[in-house]
Amino acid sequence: MAVITQSLDEAIQPITDGCLLAVARETSGVAMAATRALIRRGVKRLHLVALPTSTLQADLLIGAGCVETLETSAVSLGEFGPAPRFTAAVTAGTIHMRDATCPALHAQFQAGEKGVPFMPLRGLLGSDVLAHRPDWQTIDNPFGNNDPIVLLPALRPDVVLFHSPMADRNGNVYVGLQRELFTMAHAAQKTIVTAEKIYDGDLLADPLLAPATLPGFYVEAIAVVPRGAWPLPLPDHYGLDAAHMSEYAKLATTADGFAQYLDRYVHEKVAA
Fold first, then answer.
1. Residue 135: pLDDT band with limits 50, 70, 90
2. Which of 113, 190, 228, 260 is positioned for an S-S bond with 194, CB 3.0–4.6 A?
3. Helix, coil or strand: residue 171
4. What global pTM score does this model have?
């Protein structure tokens, strides 16, 4: 059963150097306060998996030197331009990049969720991605005739980290329409959640909330962090801080500017 902590730093203790950390896409609830706390702690050599894409979170962790391997289908700041520290790291070869596709990553997490060693996927055939992923194997369908299929190894993260609208005192976490968070938590060894607030009651006892609630036995720790996704959005709660993202995009184009951003918004623990 999840432990509801008083401290964000306490909640993220299981995210250790070298661990396989999986995080959610921008619109699913990104634990940005926890990300800043990890950078302040100086976590290193992360194998970061973003399902299926990332924006500011991956760029910050890469720029701060926390990431050794990145596995995702895209990192971009969207309308604010390329992700500058990700681009610089890939160009300089300072991180190991594992290119993927959105369906491939979802399939790998589904294999981890089901406890099977791999998941077959057909759509990758004929793509250039296969040439860069020797761990993805193409075989002949044993039930077909001259019918190739790609096998993708299961992803079983050490830790999954995301931000939620609310959790209850039993450790149950409301995820709403973000259904991939269920799959991620099912596949992971541990799930750590930051939440906007504590729900006064049992989420699983409410017939309207229970279908969108992750049971507490999948959750390792919860920290209450209001606006914990800022400056990224939390669906149905608050939107993207466009002014902040624009500022980041400008500063992070250079190493010195990125260092200024860290001093201003990460090490000073600035909140929204």
1. very high
2. 228
3. coil
4. 0.95
